[in-house]
Every structure is written in C-alpha cells, then in structure tokens.
Amino acid sequence: MPNFIDRRLNPKDKSLGNRQRFLKRAREELKRAIKEQVKSGKIADVDTDHNVSMPARGVSEPTFQPAGNSGERQYVLPGNREFAAGDRLPKRSSGGGATGAGAGTGQSEDEFQFVLSREEVLDLFFEDLELPDMVKLNLKESVAFKRRRAGFAATGSPTNINVGRTMRNSYGRRIALHRPGRKEVEALAEEIARLEAMPKSGEKHQQRLDELRQTLDKLERRRRRIPYVDPVDIRFNRFEPQPLPNASAVMFCLMDVSASMGEREKDLAKRFFVLLHLFLKRRYDRIDIVFIRHTDEAGEVDENTFFYSKQSGGTIVSTALEEMLRVIRERYPAREWNIYAAQASDGENISGDSERCASLLHDELMRLCQYYAYVEIIDERETEIFGTTDNGTSLWRAYRTVDGEWPNFQMTRIAKPADIYPVFRKLFGKQPAVQVRK
Amino acid sequence: MAKKGAATNLLFQGSDWNFETLSRTYDAIETVALEDLGLDVYPNQLEIISSEQMLDAYSSVGMPLMYQHWSFGKRFVFEDNLYRKGRRGLAYELVINSNPCITYLMEENTMAMQALVTAHAAFGHNHFFKNNYLFRQWTDASAILSYMEFAKKYITKCEERYGTTAVEAILDSAHALMDQGVFRYRRPPRLSSEKERERMRERLEYEEQTYSDLWRTLPQASESSDPDALERDVSERKKALNLPEENLLYFLEKTSLILEPWQREILRIVRVIAQYFYPQRQTKVMNEGCATFVHYTIMNTLFDQGRITEGSILEMLQSHTNVVFQPSFDDPRFPGINPYALGFAMMQDIERICVDPTGEDRDWFPEIAGSGNWRETLLDAWANHRDESFILQYLSPALIRKFRLFLLSDEADEKYCEVASIHNERGYEAIRTALARSYDIGANQPDIQVMDVDLLGDRHLRLQHNVKSGILLDEASRDATLRHVRHLWGYEVSLAGVEAETGDTLYECSTAEIEE
User: Fold this and answer.
1) I want to staple B21 with a disulfide (CB 3.0 to 4.6 A). Which of A28, A56, A395, B12 is the partner?
2) Beta-strand (E) ranges in B166-291?
3) List of residues 6+ apart from B175 with CB closer than 8 A
C-alpha cells in the first residue's frame, strides 16, 4: 500500500515569487527597450498589445556553449531512405547540421518572446511622467457614486420600506396561516350582540351564545397571534452605488490644414495628438475628441477628414478658436468636462489675427481649459535658428504673452518625431505641483 | 452472476478514478513489478496534483522544494505561454529521485493513464534510481529532500539579511557555471543537512573567534627573482591548490578571496544541485527506456490476466505509441533521437535477443543471445550502464536497420555534409560508436579547467578550454559567462583555448579585454 497524498488543495502559486522576480527583472529591461523605441519614433504604434521579444541582455542565462560554426561533428540520424556511404549533401545556408541532436534545447530560450498588453506598455511608457494639472481631479482617485435602485432587501432603514412589496408578503402569509378576516369577526360580534339583545334567554339560547363567544374569543386570539404585518414581511428598497463617469475629458485637436501644412507636418501633428490622447486615456474613463481644422475658416470634422483631406485657402487661426469656444458652449460645459486642447500649426497666420488669438485665449479659453498645448511644427533646418529663441512667427510671439500668464498653457516647437516625446516630458514634467484651483 | 465474477477481477472500469481504484491498481502493479520483473524500489509516495501545480513543479526543475530565483519564473512564464496556447501538453507525471520516491500524478489523467504512469514512474523510474550505479554512487536519495529544505531556508535567510539583489547576483553567476560545477571523476562527499548546518555554524563561530586585526600588520615575505625558484613556486602552488581543477564552482567556492561565507555556501548549494542532476543527464535513454519498458510489460501482463478492460489497454497503447514515436530526420517534427523510442526499442530488442536470437545476434552478443533470461539481463544492464556504455554494449544491427540509422559527418569549413556510414555490414560499428559518443556528456560539453592562479601575486585566474574536434565556444555567451566568473573571482580571469591533441593555443580571451 503506497502513501497517497492529495496535493490538489495545496496553494497553487508556488512559483509566484519566482514569477514576480522575473517580471521585475524583465521590467527594467523592457523599460529600457521601450524608451529606445520611443526615441526612434514609433509612437503611433504604442497604443496596442506589444510582442516584445525579450532583450537578451538581462534575462539570458549564459553558459559555456559550443559554437555551431566550428569543428567537426558527427550526427546519427534515423530514417535513411536513399543515402549510401560516401554521399555528399549540400548544407543549408543557415548552418549545416541544423538537425544536430543537441540543437533543440539551447535555442528556444533565446527566442523568448514576451507579450505585453497595451496597458503594460503604456505603464512602462509613462512611468515617470505625470499629467499636468489635474485640477478637477481631486476627483482623481475617488470616483463619485450615484445610488441606483437594485431590487429589494430584507434589511434596511425604515425610510426605504417598500410598502407594496411588504403588503404583498403580509397578505400571502395571512392567507397561508388562515388569519381570521375582519369581516368574519365583525359578523360574529354582530351575531352575539343580536343574541344578547334578545330578552328571553332559554337554556338553548344561552348555550348558543356561549359557543359564539368562545369562537369569537378564539378568533380574536388567533388574530393577535398572527399579526397583520409581521417583521418577516417587510421589504426594503435596495440601492447600489454606481460609479459615475464624472472624470470625463474632452480633447480638442486644432490644426491648420492650409497648403503650407504638408504630409510631414500633419504626420508630426498626428503623433502629437495621439500621444496626448494616450496620456488622457490613462486618467479619464471617458474621453471625447473634437477635431477642428481651419484654413481661413474653421469647422468641426471627423478624424479621417481631419488628417487626410485637403483644403485650400488662407490661414486665420482665430476662426478655429472661435469654433472651439462654440463647441464648448454647446456641448461641453466646463463644470462637467475636463477640457484639454492641443493646437498644431506651422505658425503662419494672417497679419493682425495673432493678437486676436491671444486675446481669445486670455479672455475666454484659458479659463475653461485644463490645459492648452501649442506645438509649432518647424523645418528641421530651422531648429537651430529657432530652437531656443523667442523669435519666430507672429503667432508664436503672440502666444508667448499667453504662456507667461497662464501656467496651464504650454508651447513648444518640434521638427522630427523624436522631438515629440521629450516635448511631452517638458510639457508635463515642468508643471509645478501647486496649481490654480478655482 | 458470471458478469459479476468478471467485474470483480477487473481493477477498474471507465475513466474516472478515486483513491480506492488507485490503491487497488497500485497493489496489482506492485505484484507484477516485484514478483514477475524482479524490480527493487524505494517506498512510493504518490501525490495527486493539478495542472497549475505541475507547471510550478516544471519551472523549479522538478524539485518539490526549491529556492527562489527569477530564472525559474522565466521558465514558468515560458511553459505557461506554451501550455495556454495549446502548443504543448503537460507531462502526465513527474518523479523525483528521493527516498521515499515521490511521484506526481496529474488529476486530469483518466484511470487508465493513472495506472500507466504509476507503473512508469513509481516502478520503472523508481527502480532505475535505486539501482543504477551512477545514482547509487553520486546521489543520495535519502538526503536530497532535507538538503533542499535547508537550501531553500538558507537562501531565504540570506535574502532577508543581505538583500535580494545581492543574493540574485551570486545565484546568476553560479547558475552560469552549473555545467562546470560537477565532479566528473572524483566522487563527491555525501551530504546530510544536519551536518551541513552544524558545519556552517561552526565555521562562522570559528571565524568570529579567531578574527584578529593584527594579522594584517605582518610583514610580507620578500620576493625571489630566481627563475628556477619561480617555476618551482608555480608547480608548488598548483599542487597546493590541487590544480588543474575541472569543477569551477568548487574551486571558486574554496579559493575565491572576495566571497563572504554566505556566498560560498550559495555556490555550494548550486554545486550540490548540479551534481544531483548529473546522473540524470547521463542516463536519459536508459531511464526513460527502463520506465517505458516496465509500464509496457506490466500493463500487458495485467491485461493478459484479465484485470484491465480492452478499452483501457487501447487507451494506454495509444498513449504509449505517442511516447515512443520516432520521426525520420527529414520530418518537420524531428527533434533529434527520441530517448523513449531508442531506450524502449533497445530493451525490447534485448528481450528478443535473449529469447529468440538470429544468427547475427549470436555473433554480436554471444553472452546473452538465446540465454532466455531477459529479466536478469535487463536488470543487469539497468544497474551497470549509462547511456553511452549501454548503447555501445547493446545496440544491435537489427535495431540499426529498424531505425534506418545513418551517420552524417559535418565539418564546419566544408560546403557539404558527408554520409559516413549507413545501416549495412560496414557501418554498424561506426554508427554504434558515434551514437554512443553523442550521449557522452563528458565528451560533448566544453572541457574547461582552472590551470593556474597566483594568489599572492596579481591573482590572475587562468582557465583553459581543451578544444576537441576543433569545436570552439560561442563567443557572446563565452564572454558573458567569463564575466560571471570574474564576478565570483574578483580579479582578472582569462580563458585560453588549447587544442587537446596538439597543444596549440587556438584563442585567448580575458575579462580585461571584454568590455562591460
């Protein structure tokens, strides 16, 4: 008789510690890899599951291994059909004896692939960045709840008693336990009263009266024992707290689509918007995106039109800001929405309009927005000229004045994809902890 | 009535199992195993586990107790991925060379499979562990579990005391040298965990008691510059350090100047585990062949006795056939020679030679051919061989023809491989020798030894790789591994590749040149 032990109820995750150690180790490696990836500018792909092949450096386990491309080897293989001794077989280009007996074990681990979910990628991606200005997000961590009716409960506070349901239960119980009805008792009492009122009382009469009294007494006692409404009948309305999507944000994408914005500029702008969207998605349950494009007039469009259709005309930036203001008034009251705006432009504007833009921002928009980012897309050759100075287009100079006054306004210039990520670092990194709270 | 009589003779019916049928079946298997086959086994402990637990066991190299390390987590994620994608099934059982012999049975198995794996693991493997000379000489089945318990606790304690990172760094380096951490020729000392703990405590106490700051102030011995004396010094210190030494982990544990006592102890733990698994790596074909042969024989015997239904034996045979399937070399599924297939075929072949030999067998195996005593022949083979010697001794021409084995020789510089021998009269010997050699771990693993170190001088550790058949080391992993050696040694480490036959130096590399 052997010793049988049923281990199935033992704790399962014996290797949980190992797994955590591995993930921790891999995490550092992966973070490094992703940072490199971001620098080389594949931001548009960030928003998906990633099949990251494990960077061999940190998680490889090196040992002394024989090199495949040196020396003489002999293999014994099964299943010969047509070969005779002395036959020569050409090697495949990828290393001759790929069928070697020991070849199977070492390699599989080098090709180790690790699937990271989108969330994990983004967590790594954003790890040390903070979103700006979560002014309205003292709601940030605590989600608001609304109570919603959700069925009935046997316990609760008296204010929540559901009378209809309680009475229905009481009625059913009274029928089931044969509680004497009021009419029945009243009829009996009337009968007794009638008999008592009769003057003549014979033996038989008296007997009948006693009988009736006894019955009435029994009924009364039964009525007392079986209450009309018993505690077991009582039902309460049940409420369930339901999280409210009050942490919702709207993101305005504003872009100049006039002829001066070419493919390159649009591509950069798009990446910028995508990244901003990613940041917001991490914080808000619900994000609306509004695309507003403008030439010398502005309009709200869908995403595809926004990025891919062409329009000719001059450039009046203020039209876009006015359009944005209109949309906010109509659909996104600032009380309920966190408003973010990102504007991309090459900096061109009709003369005199830039000042109007600045005043629009000053007077109206900046009060409403959580955050307003302006990126000016410049030519790579211009980076050196404009990189650090305050010189530039009229729009840039006008926006400088806004930048000075509003801490939640950010502006910067980008020239190539690799610039975008550092810009985000700058935009979100430099936010001081204390912010306007109005 | 007749039907009921038949039913009582059956061990089980249907696919569900419970502890009663398991136990009844075990007893029946035990009777056949001990009385018919004459096996000799450790007491058995059968444990039922779930698939998650099987995955856990997989990732910690099959030990029920194991210290924690990220590499086991990596293996777990890897296996878990494959399993969840359905690319790989799990083993039906897992068996540990310990006394009592622990066998894990998966709860998903049908009763027929439970019977099969009980015979396979609890008797086949168990017998092999207990009787094979390698296991008898090199491992200590009764001590391993308590040693692992000690190791696990010790490493946890080190992690608490010195931090996970420090312990992990030592373990990483030690794991890199695991293959170089076994004694191949010298017999390792037996271990017992109680003695182990006692020794460790004494060592620490002794060090604490005898520490004296004065030793640092002793004047240095004067240097002699006489070349003869220098050479004499070299040979003397080599002798003192017992060089050359093939067990790098052992050498580092004993000699490294920078390691703390706890770090030495960790090296020792890794070394002991490597040594424990060394026999298993040398007997893959025999071990699996033995277990497969045993389950096949026992199940057929039970079926002949009418104790297993036809349905169950068919299920077992189907699973058995899957296990011993050997695809041809040009089959996309070809993973190399299947140790189950080769081992099982060889053992069946031995049975055939003993009972029903051909003229050829009588020429090749005069001692056993026609002796009729296949049980004893097999028991003897199981006890006294490892894969290499077993194949060299028992691979018959008939089997070479059956597998249609051929020998391919491959020189790295040539554009073609040459078929050196095929399964014909002239090729048998060559194929047999080559196949046996391919199972000789000593011959196939890089032979790296500590050659010299001047502990009083620059402490430069010199390793030598004895290159056989011109097979060099993969450079990237070589350099990475050398860095691990340096981490444990603390001073410069260099490796020289020396052609084993001619003594020519083929390459030299040193940690001073390898950039970090």
Assistant:
1) B12
2) none
3) A61, B69, B71, B270
Measured between CA atoms, how close is B375 to chain A, in angstroms? Answer: 25
Substitution target from B246, B392, B411, B477 for chain A, most A beta carbons within 10 A: B477
Quick check: A38 pLDDT over 80? Answer: no
B chain contacts of residue A101, beta-carbon cutoff 8 Å: 336-337, 438
Give me the residues of A, 336-365, that contact B with CB < 8 A: none
Pick from A74-78, B88-92, B141-145, B338-342 the range whose average pLDDT is largest.
B338-342
Local structure of B389: helix, strand or coil: helix
Strands of B50-152 (E only): list them: 93-96, 101-106
pLDDT band at A35 (very low <50, low <70, confident <90, very high): low
| Residues in chain B closer than 8 A to A84 (CB atoms) | 419, 422
Average pLDDT over residues A272-295: 76
- The minimum CA-CA distance between B234 and chain A, rounded to whole Å, is 27
Segment B272-298 shows an average pLDDT of 91
Alpha-carbon distance B96 to B135, whole Å?
A: 12
B positions 154-173 inside 8 Å of A (CB): 164, 168, 172
Q: What pTM does this model have?
A: 0.65
Chain A interface, best mutation among B25, B34, B77, by max A CB count within 10 A: B77
Please write the tens of the pLDDT for every residue from A114-127.
555 565 666 665 55
Query: Within 10 A of B504 (CB to CB), how many other CB atoms are there?
Result: 10
Q: Is A71 on the interface with B (CB under 8 A)?
A: yes
**Confidence (pLDDT) at A106:** 36
Q: To 5 degrees, how large is the angle CA B349–CA B354–CA B356? A: 85
Instruction: Say if residues B41 and B128 touch (Cβ distance below 8 Å).
Output: no
Confidence of residue B243 (pLDDT cuts 50, 70, 90): confident
Rg (CA), chain A: 40
**Which three-class secondary structure state does DSSP give residue B391?**
helix
Residue B482: which of A55, A64, A365 has the closest Cα? A64
Scored b (16 or more CB within 10 A) or e, B394-421 reads bbbbbbbeebbbbbbbbbbeeeebebbb
3-state secondary structure of B72: helix
pLDDT at B413 over 70: yes
- Per-window interface: A 282-311 vs B, CB < 8 A: none
Is residue A435 predicted with pLDDT exceeding 50?
Answer: no
Q: What is the dihedral of CA B120, B123, B126, B127, to 10 degrees?
A: -120
List the beta bridge partners of residue A76.
B407
Please state, in angstroms and as integers, the Cα–Cα distance from residue B270 to each residue in A166, B147, B148, B180, following that order. 72, 12, 11, 11
Tell me the three state secondary structure of residue A198.
coil
**A347 within 8 A of A396, measured Cβ to Cβ:** yes
Q: Is B51 on the interface with A (CB under 8 A)?
A: no
CA distance B214 to A204: 129
Q: How far apart are CA A150 and CA A162, in angstroms?
A: 13
Largest CA distance in chain A: 141
Supply A29's token pair. Answer: 């490696």
A54-94 pLDDT, tens digit per residue, is: 555 557 788 888 887 778 888 888 988 888 888 888 876 54
Q: Which helix (H) or strand (E) covers residue A290, if one does?
A: strand A286-294
**Residue length, chain B?**
516
What is the C-alpha to C-alpha distance for residues B295 and B297, in angstroms, rounded to an integer?
5
**A–B interface: beta-carbon pairs under 8 A:** 267
How far off is chain A from B25, nearest CA to CA, in Å?
10
The region of weakest confidence among A67-71, B190-194, B328-332 is B190-194
- The answer to whether B477 and B446 are in contact (CB under 8 A) is no
Q: In the block, which residue shows the tokens 């035990």?
A: B30
Mean pLDDT of chain B: 85
